[in-house]
Amino acid sequence: MRLTGTGHASMRIDTPAGSILCDPWVNPAYFASWFPFPDNSQLDWETLGDVDYLYVSHLHRDHFDAAHLKRFVTKKATVLLPEYPTSQLEDELRDLGFTSFIKTKSNEVHALDGGLNIMIQALISPTDGPIGDSSLWVEYDGVRVLNQNDARPTDLSIFAELGHVHAHLLQFSGAIWYPMVYELPESAKRAFGKQKRDRQFDRTIRYIDDLKASWVFPIAGPPCFLDDELWQFNDIFGDEGNIFPDQQWFADHYRELGRDNEVILLPGTVAELTADDCKVTHPVPDVREFFADKKPYLEQMRERKRPIIEAEKATWRHPEIDVLAELKRRIEPLLEESIYMAKGVGGPVRFDLVGYDGESVESIVVDFPGKEVRPYADEKVRYRFRTQRELIEHLIYIDEGDWVNSLFLSCRFSAARIGQYNEFIYAFFKCLTEERLQYAEGWYDEHERTTDAEDITLGDWVVQRRCPHLKADLTRFGMVDDGVLTCQLHGWKFDLASGKCLTSVGHKVRARKAGEPAESAS
After folding, report:
1. DSSP output for 413-438
2. Which PROSITE patterns does the entry mention (predicted)?
3. How do residues 192-247 score in pLDDT, each as one tens digit?
4. What pTM does this model have?
5. E strands present in 313-367
6. Does residue 490 sit in helix, strand or coil?
7. From the centroid of its chain, how far is CA 47?
8. Could you give the CA distance from residue 364 to residue 366 in angstroms, rounded to a whole number?
């Protein structure tokens, strides 16, 4: 089996029974804020795109690059489709010209022609990707690969049960806006960033330890930020709180743990994989030297890409749009239908829209309890976002149904909040279509009504086995320290004495001191 790196989470998998192109991303994403690092635009995409199968893990735009898929990937390719609850991924691929689909069943092995076997595990909670994320397992002639990319499954055992995995490709770097955009003192922002960076690394190591693959490939990051306004987000300033470390940083820290089975996939790297060996050829003479020269590399890349960024910016302004009226028309019907997410948000969310002059501000409130969109009325709000008016105009103009997969991941905003993180805000703003809203509400309804009866013992505490957040198995991901439970899958914390979630609103955990009767559980 041959793995060819094609940038970020993308790769081409070649076997005698067929080839699979995974998640090709080349064009800038999220309001021209994210670019693949290293630059992959000069690869021979005409050849790379001539494949038998296409796998797009999910709809995040650093995985689903519509323009690139339309231009460079043969429409003769058969799409390996994850089993998602909505049809959006299939619909968008059909719109691009793809006609052949294998609609997989999650966690079931599918035998393709010539002895090639694949399995896709689909994750389908409202907080997984843009309503869905997935992992791809591939096997040919006894050689097995797991492309986990961004996905965060609670359990990798189903893959291990299919036989020893030889190559494990998984995310290690950040892919979020926290804490960089929050209006915090720099010292606090750096401390929170370091916590997140450490947690990312710990989670990656836990997945690696669970699967015990022969070779580990750190992929799916980091992006690079080439717009002058976002340049500070690149990890080139020695900031231990930067959440976007690169592959060499991971390799160095991984080796500090006494391990040496990592493989860095640059665009153009080729890894020839057998059951016993992995022979790697890189497109550069010295990988470590390449990363040591990262800053000048990014500076040169910034100049090459500047016209692309400026061209995109020129399309954002739509002064003819009445933002307040359009938001009322689009969002208020969804607020009326929302029960669980509206209750979870629990109050008004304020958007401060900065005008074209960079000074004037229009403040609009999405009032979840009041089920309306209205002008800000000088009331106290717990959640506030500040962004350029033109970005909201453009979201309205293109009828964007997922603000997470556009505005929020762009990092082109600032945020402030009083109290805890609230997942329901972001869940709602990725569900600005009828189909998505109905799915998410149904998922939360089922989630709310599901009683997790099984308990486990962690230290001096008896707690429910499944994390209230996304049902991670706390026998594997739970850690108790001084009466606080941390689920290490996503870093969520719970005060065991009260059961209160310390990380977000809601999600109370059932817990009691060991030796206390069950009926006294909080």
Report:
1. EEEEESSSB-HHHHHHHT--SHHHHH
2. RIESKE
3. 999 999 999 999 999 999 999 999 999 999 999 999 999 999 999 999 999 999 99
4. 0.88
5. 348-354, 361-367
6. coil
7. 28
8. 7
